[in-house]
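Job type: complex structure
Entries:
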Amino acid sequence: MSEPHVETPQQADEANAHRSDVAGGTSAPGPAERSSDVLLEVDHVTLRFGGVVALNDVSFSLRKGEIFGLIGPNGAGKTTCFNAMTGVYRPTSGTISFNGESIVGKKKHEITRGGIARTFQNVRLFPEMTALENVMVGADAHHKTSVVGALFRLPRHWQEERSGREKALELLRFVGIVHRAGEVSRNLSYGEQRRLEIARALATNPTLLCLDEPAAGFNPAEKEELLALIRKIRDTGVTVLLIEHDMRLVMGVTDRIVVLEFGKKIAEGTPAEVRDNPKVIAAYLGVPTDAA
Amino acid sequence: MSDVKVDKPAAVPADKKNWRSSGGVRGWFGRQHWAVRTVLIIVFAVLAYLLPYAGDIPVLGPQIITEGIDWPSALFNMSYYVLLALGLNVVVGFAGLLDLGYVGFFAVGAYTVALLTSPDSILKTEWGWLAAVPVALAVAMVSGLILGWPTLRLRGDYLAIVTLGFAEIIRIFATSSETLRGDRGFADIPHPPGSYSDGKPIFGVADATPYYWLGLSVIILVILGVRNLDRSRVGRSWLAIREDEEAAEIMGVRTIKYKLWAFAIGAFIGGLGGVMFAGQQGFMNSQTFILQFSILVLAGVVMGGSGNIFGAILGGALISYIPDRLRGIEDPIFHTDLFGFRFAIFGAIIILIMIFRPQGLIPSRRRAMELKDREKEVAPQ
């Protein structure tokens, strides 16, 4: 394999350290400086579906400006956790607070406007809308024009249409698919669709962007591009929460990681700490029966 | 668009292929200068206003006009069917909410006018037609909200059944309640106001042409309004809801609000149709609002092209025109009026259209694509 990837854990750590140095040297603050302020707090969240416990007393918190990884084997409850954060599911017990305010019981669109945006594990774009229109739907989240304004073409309608369009084009440029702006999104390639979904989520002006397995189905070169994109997003001041299977990708980009298994948090820490945690190794590789 | 049909046989002439791939008539229209487009639209509107005189066109005219019913009346019938189709298109075509009880709103509009204006009404208000119009439209809109609020959590088939129930409730209530007078109905509903300089009323009983012009004017206003809504945040929100409701909500679209608006706007336009109908007919009873009516309008929208304003207009006009055109023509077998066969002929036409052009006569491009996607879902290749 000739991918330009960080191969060994040591190298990954070095790369991480180097990256934060660079970030600290420029305008963006390094992870160490911004560690104090909590953006999202998941506090003892339990979520049951009938008898199935999907999340069992999970607690962790996200700090402003970091890239946070949520990993775990299949069925560990990662996406469920995501869904609880974005209002799709309501936790059976426990609280989730964002910017110090509880989001449990809030409507999905309210949470979005509050600053949490997400993408989906299996791409869920509006397939017959153009790429531009898809992103404009996201930009509409903060617009105030409604039926009356649109019906009578009030000045605010024109102003919001124009600013929404400009913003959408800018975001398409940011994720690198501006040349496909007029194309119906179902005709985009898989990679472009993934990028479009990120652009659509960014259009809602999030403080926290949740990416649900953004690299699924990507080849190594595409993954590398995605990593660069995620870092670029972080550098604009958006906190990123990443669900991912690909350990190398997670190790290479995240500042901190939480590991879930069977709905329980089994580890939390920096990539290096998590990687060496025996529980994590057991969860991913299995435990020999005599060692247990 | 780049999706030139590659699998088409080479027998298709090259120029036709280019015409298709460059968007056909609509693509051509969109590329014209705005002045050209404005002139074309005005010419088209003027031609529509001149339709009552279509019978005077040599050779072609007599083929177009209806025989068993006077042509202006047939045109007026078309105008309120078109209004209904336009309103239903907002609900079904734009927002993707299947509403089988659309005639309910038509009935609410018409009954409100009747109650407020007819001397038969227990209210005994006997308002003028024009004064009753805003009230009727408001009541229709509110009825849309009342139906929408509890039912919009339902999707697809379930919503269809509930709306079907709504229309039946209105009809049965109208049939059996003393207030709405059942079969006896309301007589002497006043016509729209206005008179010529010689004192004769503009909206009389003899000539339906002014009613058609009124209907056409209302239609043009509705088209402008609906088009404005479609090409705005509202239309985008509707489209997003239609395509993936949950994703739309997570992207910040207030789904309940926009679905309710779709229902309210649909109800408003339906009520408008009812108001016009009551003003022209002067008499109405509960038999007007049978279920068939809802189905017919829905058939018109689907036939014309759901999600496309001009498709809905064409569909609405055809469902009214075809039966009216069949009136007064003797059928060759039983030598009775061909009108009696209207539903059979109509059904056959709809089946043919659905076989050869399932996306509708003037389809919405997006809707056509959605349909193709569903085909794939049903029969994976």
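Summary: Strands of chain A lie at 38-49, 52-63, 67-71, 93-98, 101-102, 116-118, 208-212, 239-243, 256-261, 264-269. The longest strand of chain A covers residues 38-49.
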